[in-house]
Amino acid sequence: MYKTKAYAAASATSPLTATTIPRREPTERDVQIEILFCGICHSDLHSVRNEWSEFLPTTYPIVPGHEIVGRVAKVGSAVTQFKPGDLAAVGCLVDSDGTCLHCKAGLEQFCPNLTLTFNSPDKHLGGVTYGGYSAIMVVDERFVLRVPSNLALAGAAPLLCAGITTYSPMRHWVVTRGKKVGVVGLGGLGHMAVKFAHALGAHVVVFTTSPSKKEDALRLGADEVVVSRHTDEMRKHAGSFDFILDAVSGEHDINAYVNLLGRDGNITLVGAPAKPLGVSAFALIMARRSLSGSNIGGIAETQEMLDFCGAHNITADVEVIPIQKVNEAYDRLLKSEVKYRFSIDMASLKSE
Ligand code: NAP
Ligand code: ZN
Question: What does pTM read for this prediction?
Answer without folding.
Answer: 0.98
